[in-house]
Amino acid sequence: MYFTTDTATSPNAKIPEGDLKDKWSNFKDQARLISPGNRQKYHILVVGTGLSGASAAASLAELGYQVSTFCFQDSPRRAHSVAAQGGVNAMKNYKNDGDSIYRMFYDTLKGGDFRAREANVYRLAECSSHLIDQAVAQGVPFAREYSGYLANRSFGGVQVSRTFYARGQTGQQLLLGAYQAMMRQVHLGKIRSYTRHEMLDLVTENGLARGIIVRNMDTGAISRHAADAVVLATGGFGKIFYLSTLAMGCNGSAIWRAHKKGAWAACPSWTQIHPTCLPQAGNYQSKLTLMSESLRNDGRIWVPRNKNENRKAVEVPEEDRDYYLERKYPSYGNLAPRDIASRAAKERIDAGYGVGPLKNAVYLDFKDAISKHGKGTIVKRYGNLFNMYEKITGINAYEQPMMISPAAHFSMGGLWVDYELSTNIPGLYAIGEANFSDHGANRLGANSLLQACVDGYYILPQTLPQFLAQQGKANQPDSDSEAFFLAEQQVRSRLEGLCAINGNKTADHFHRELGKILYDKCGLSRSAKGLTAAIEAIRMLKKTFYEELKIPSVLNGINEELEKAGRVADYLEISELMCVDALSREESCGAHFREEYQTPDGEARRNDSEYSYISCWKNSGDIPVLIREPLHFEFTKPTERSYK
Amino acid sequence: MNFKLKIWRQDNAQAAGKLVDYEVENISADTSFLEMLDQLNETLILRGENPISFDYDCREGICGQCCLFINGRAHGPLAHTSTCQLHMRSFRESETIYVEPFRAGPFPVKKDLKIDRKPLDEIIASGGYVSVNTGQAPEANATLIDSDTVEQAFDAASCIGCGACVAACKNGSAALFTAAKISHLFRLPQGKIEHKQRVKNMVKTMDKLGFGACSNTGACEVECPQGISISHIALMNREYFKKSP
Ligand SMILES: Cc1cc2nc3c(=O)[nH]c(=O)nc-3n(C[C@H](O)[C@H](O)[C@H](O)COP(=O)(O)OP(=O)(O)OC[C@H]3O[C@@H](n4cnc5c(N)ncnc54)[C@H](O)[C@@H]3O)c2cc1C
User: Fold this and answer.
1) What string of DSSP letters covers A521-589?
2) Which of A49, A445, A569, A641 has the maximum number of C-beta atoms within 10 A of its C-beta?
3) What is the ipTM, given to two decimal places?
4) Lowest mean pLDDT among A74-83, A156-165, A298-307, A418-427
5) What sign for the dihedral angle of Cα A319, A355, A401, A449?
6) Which residue of A449, A564, A568 sits with most ligand 1 atoms within 8 Å of its CB, as the best mutation to test the pocket?
7) CB distance B60–A290 less than 8 Å?
8) Which residues of A touch B137 (CB under 8 A)?
9) Relative to the CA of A214, which ligand 1 atom is closest?
10) d(CA A189, CA B125)
């Protein structure tokens, strides 16, 4: 038995009353506020300074709260939001192509295979328009038409153009906007920014979140931080697959520590595997670089029709090419949603039609786009991506097709949060990719920069004060309390324990092994057999980790291996819960594809009568406990998701 | 491929450092420079030696965290390339490669190849923003901006904050970094209003933090992974002196 079920607890998502389009206004109308003069008395910790954390910290500080921020990079500007290329969605309907808040809401809900809350998703679409205004006001140089108006492109899974972009560096520019807003508050003394500080534990007292324990990664000093509320904005944990599009330092430790202190994890196995990444080329590769999905606007994906094709790509004539996405999904073609595009690629690769030296890739071809629009246009649209491709592979993609393959990319799962972005631990919030919220079982491209920003700029600053107002200042957090003392002790002994193992394998070794297990068994397709095998393999790996790990025994000072080992230790536990989560869900939905549950033509078969719920996992210290939050579709009717 | 490496080792900010010799063997030409160092580190760790500390995060050329001085050049031999995007195919078989930290007075070495670049954040904090609070913004298309202007602003805004410009400069000047932000915001209507104050404050902060003066050698532009032009420095100087009494 890998889990137990608790049917007595029913999560309260705190969805406001009213019609779908009135819910957020109703919340704001009734939310309790804190008077401007009192706000400075409240101290809020924001862990993570990516788009969600930086925007939340800046917005809360602008309101007058005292904020401390933490990040592991040496500057807040380096959070992995910086790497997002393609764009950010917003409902402006500048194209007059039929877009509306409802359509954006519906596209997102459908894209997520009806495994998200209607109210949350509607609010995301509702707040999207204003984000573009905010970013432009900050100086974000979004692409413009010759006329000076903002430009749009379209992204996978939708039939309108609602994606705003800043060359291939949308995440960088949005993050710089948020970072600059944050640095302005640092300058004004409203934010204290702790860089190179890693959160190693959450401190709770009487069921409330009271603060965190952090390690200064330069000196090794462990310190305690107490506050009125803690916000986790620590990003996604897709790096658990080792090879992924995430940064080397991305991790799941902050949310996992919170989970171990009682916060529920929601649908942790829902991972987006991105279809357009550079294929793995060797054993020591440390990451898989993403090639923006926007390339699918003009690039056509194909594999050879014949298994033993050994001509160069450019020499393969049209009749010997299989444009499989166009063939299988004629109405969306190359713009099919990510889960579908990735799975289709895997299907072709597994069937023996893969290309490249390791036969692990498919072609993404710009030949037709270049002859239709001219090379100049393609250079203008994607020049930096083509350059990047050439830098990494040494191949000129104007002359030969790119080779791409799927890679782990985004965590739809994360900490469970209610409509107010509060976890089930009062005083602990989770925003951005760290939470489970709006994307359901599959995120649409360009929706997560949006979600990170909307959480940070618009939602949290409205919802968190509600909690502060209820709490008042009677019960001050105190970092000298027993709870802080114990949490610090535990952190210290965990670090000492890792240093003391003194085996013969590096942390990266275990991370790579774990990545292989997960990608094989809990990646693009899953089965009960594979998942149970994976759980056993992970348990074995965890055992050898604690026997054979070797890291330098340096506690006071810089020790990257200690940082890595701590993250891998947590990954070894998160991965097991991911497999249990995938095992417990006996249906296919979005990115979660169970081989046992598919239609005759190989598409995901959802099971609404039994699985229309969010899986919330409670840590019991032993076997994970499943709590179900049923999903109610009051305003839409879940349909079969078809992109044919 | 095989390489001889001479790598800067330094225990901490106070300690004296020195170049230490290492050899790596059987490295595939498609390995990135940082992955080559990863492999060296795995060997060192397993031998019980202290691995080499160096900075990195995204490994796709955009976070600006990686910062190695390779064979006397910031980010190594290729133009417009950050260290993480450099591959071993850019070096000769059996070449001796010198690996040092970015050096500049305001960037003290923390350990080995890791440096402290906080001063760059301080320059931004002193004025590198538009003072707009969340919620204040008007409709985005209310102010049209011609696409050439946006492209010029973008060229400046693309800075990744790695500090190569400072490391490449014989004076240790942060003029390109500072000017890029000033120029980005100056070119856009949203950034114009606070412009005078911004120039004054950012230049003052840059000087106060101990960065050197710009003497127009152009080394920064050559080493900038984003290819940001020194013409932004001219703009900064012009605007700065326009304002000064
Ligand atoms: C390569 C790539 C391309 C993408 N492209 C797009 C796109 O085009 N459009 C789109 O909408 N989305 C895109 N995404 C997704 C999107 O970028 C992310 O979901 C989003 O930016 C996440 O923002 P965040 O604020 O939640 O987290 P992040 O930006 O990842 O920030 C996490 C922060 O948490 C800190 N942190 C983490 N752990 C700890 C700890 N233990 N202690 C202290 N600090 C910690 C980090 O230092 C960092 O500051 C892309 C993602 C990737 C990887």
Assistant:
1) HSSSSB-HHHHHHHHHHHHHHHHHHHHHB------SS--HHHHHHHHHHHHHHHHHHHHHHHHH--S-B
2) A49
3) 0.98
4) A156-165
5) positive
6) A449
7) yes
8) 130, 133-134, 136-137
9) 42
10) 11
Return the amino acid letter for A266: A
pLDDT digits (tens, 9 = 90+) for A284-336: 899 999 998 889 989 999 999 999 899 999 999 999 999 999 999 998 899 88
On whether the CB atoms of residues A255 and A232 are closer than 8 A, the answer is yes
Residues of chain A positioned with their CB less than 8 A from the CB of B60: 83, 287, 289-290, 388
Q: Are A593 and A527 in contact (CB under 8 A)?
A: no
Look up residue A487 and give its two tokens: 């949490």
pLDDT at A641: 79
Q: Using the beta-carbon criterion (under 8 Å), do B125 and A62 form an inter-chain contact?
A: no
Check pLDDT > 80 for residue B243. Answer: no
Residue B244 is predicted with a pLDDT of 55
Ligand 1 centroid–CA A82 distance in Å is: 8
CB-side neighbour CA atoms (13 Å) of A405 = 23
**Whole-angstrom Cα distance, residue A187 to residue A184?**
5
Query: For residue A379, how many C-alpha atoms fall within 13 Å in the half-sphere facing its CB?
Result: 5
Cα–Cα distance measured from residue A512 to residue A520, given in angstroms and rounded to the nearest whole number = 12
Domains, in order of start, for chain A: 274-408 (3.90.700.10), 482-620 (1.20.58.100)
| Choices 1.10.1060.10, 3.10.450.50, 3.90.650.10, 1.10.760.10: CATH for B117-130+145-243 | 1.10.1060.10
The per-residue pLDDT for range A11-57, each reduced to its tens digit, is 999 999 999 999 999 999 999 999 999 999 999 999 999 999 999 99
pTM equals 0.97
Q: Pick from A62, A67, A165, A284 the residue to mutate for testing the B interface (most B CBs within 10 Å).
A: A284
- Nearest chain A CA: its distance from B73 CA (Å): 18
Q: DSSP string of A481-511? A: SHHHHHHHHHHHHHHHHHHH---SB-HHHHH
Interface of B with A in 12-71 (CB under 8 A): 12, 28, 30-32, 34-35, 38-39, 42, 45-46, 50-51, 53, 55-65
Q: How far apart are CA A440 and CA A521, in angstroms?
A: 21
| Bridge partners (DSSP) listed for residue A605 | none
CATH code of the region B3-114: 3.10.20.30
Does the beta-carbon distance from B121 to A169 stay under 8 Å? no
Catalytic center residues of A: 338
A456 pLDDT higher than 70 = yes
Interchain proximity B50–A554, CB inside 8 Å: yes
Measured from the CB, is residue A79 less than 6 Å from ligand 1? yes
Percent with pLDDT over 90 in chain A: 89
The residue contributing the CA closest to ligand 1 atom 51 is A84
- CATH 3.10.20.30 in chain B, residue ranges: 3-114
- Among residues A210, A161, A155, the alpha carbon closest in space to that of A447 is found at A155
Q: Which of A433, A455, A460, A491 to mutate to test the pocket of ligand 1 (most atoms within 8 A of CB)?
A: A433
C-alpha to C-alpha distance for A250 and A263, rounded to whole angstroms: 20
The whole-number pLDDT of residue B77 equals 97
The token pair at A125 is: 């679409």
Contact A531, A585 (CB under 8 A): no
Min Cα separation A149/chain B (Å): 6
Residue ranges, comma separated, of all CATH 1.10.1060.10 domains in chain B are 117-130+145-243
Q: Is residue A199 within 8 Å of residue A253, measured between CB atoms? A: yes
Give B-chain residues touching A236 at CB under 8 angstroms.
none
Residue A281: closest CA among chain B residues belongs to which residue? B30
Assess B160–A contact: CB distance below 8 Å, yes or no.
yes
